[in-house]
Amino acid sequence: MTYARSMILRISVFGIPAIAVVGLVLLLNSLEASPGLALAAYALIAVSTGATIGYFADRLLGRPPNRTR
């Protein structure tokens, strides 16, 4: 179960922002948004993605911690 939870976390951390960008592109194209609004929206996605990856960075490592006897 631990492996499945770890893989779900990895997929969601990298997959959800990609899906959000695709949805944002479609939304901005349908609204014919100005370049300034598009830049602000992409910056918001980038900041939230970076913050999420930073928050979960310790959980994304695949190597177990060193154990001493």
Describe the model:
The chain is mainly alpha-helical. The protein is 80% helix and 0% strand. α1 (2-31) runs antiparallel to α2. The two termini are 27 Å apart. The model has no long low-confidence stretch (mean pLDDT 80).
In short:
Helices cover 80% and strands 0% of the residues. The protein has helices spanning 2-31, 35-55, 57-60.
Number of helices in the DSSP assignment: 3
Q: Tell me the total number of β-strands.
A: 0
Percent of residues in helices comes to: over 70%
What would the principal axes of the Cα set say about the shape? elongated
Descriptive key words:
69 residues; mainly alpha; 3 helices; 80% helix; 0% strand; elongated
SSE diagram, text form:
Blueprint: H1 2-31, H2 35-55, H3 57-60
Helix pairs in contact: 1-2
